[in-house]
Amino acid sequence: MIRPFELFVGLRYTRAKRRNFFISFISLISMLGIVVGITAIVTVLSVMNGFGEELRARILGFISHVTITESNGGLRDWRDVAAKVTTHTEISGRAPYIVGQGMLVHGKAASGVLIRGVLPAEEPQVSDLDQKMTVGDLSNLQPGEFGIVLGQELSWKLNAPIGSRVALVIPQALATPVGVVPRSKRFRVVGIFDVDMYEYDSGWALIHISDAAKLYRMPDQVSGLRLKLNHLDLAPRVSREIQNMLGDEYRSRDWTQQHVNFFRALKMEKTVMFIIMLLVIAVAAFNVVSMLVMVVTDKEADIAILRTLGVSATGIMLIFMVQGTVIGVVGTLVGSVCGVLLASHVGEIVHFIESLFNTTFLAPDVYYISDVPSQVRWQDVTMIAGASLVMGLLATLYPARRAAKIQPAEALRYE
After folding, report:
1. 3-state secondary structure (DSSP) of residue 239
2. Residue ranges per domain, the chain?
3. What's the predicted TM-score (pTM) here?
């Protein structure tokens, strides 16, 4: 336990003007190293959080938070199932869907796609597609009119602007007098969406759910029911509760199961980056070790006098631990504040640098995310500050132990 005496002497050594300016310089550099390290790691992790949240928002703006199907595939009486599950307080929206594979053909261009049959009035409850329409509107999908909404990349690939006629060929055989041929139907492009995700913009198309039921021969059922939740992070728990509510006849899947590899990769990347950036703080901690070793060498006479006055070896250790810990605490606090401020305004800073040098770091025509998003999580800041304080405390152990082993007679022999 640190007593007032050790704390007083340690703080006095920290404030005092040393005879050796080089030691003071190393002390300052050590503190600045901790500040720069913490600022860098808070900023980097916040930007990674921002990019992760941006990607997650775009993905979940197209797919569902939770999907319900029957165990054997498909879903009958979806309205009854919707009435049961919407009693759950976490569910804020629901919409049925039919999904199937196909190939779109326009002129000489062709592309494989996934077709989603939707109810235009219900779809905004579970996705942001109504807000991502660049041309047309979801309400243009009317039953029996065989309209289709394409992703922007798919529209460019097929050279099929609004009003074009495209042929949808599906992998279901149709017997004709000339033999077995794939089934096909011509659709008119009534809208184009852009969700800023190439996977969806180039590989998905939307039609009315009644047209999809006719095309895929599903007159009395849908592929499943999509649900939207109030809190994304509760999706696994809500999915299990819905599964228990509906019974084994149904299957409930949440978004973490559908994209588990992608989000696991993001989490692993963030963890690795955190470990790498901690090395910067570790270098600053080594500077603290070298600085304290030089302080101990410079203060050998003072240590010897204190020992002759009755200060124990433990007391000497605590004095120098206080000195090193003060450097670590001040550096950690200043670095945390600077990191939070920088991470909170990194977007504005990037825009200022771009305008200052007339350049663009993330060109909109190359990158889907052209801004630098940032999200400060206090859990990350606390973890970084805690790791810094622990490393700073560990850095004081060797110099403090060395100071405690100094023998007064040896130190004062040549004084």
Report:
1. helix
2. 4-57+262-409, 66-257
3. 0.72
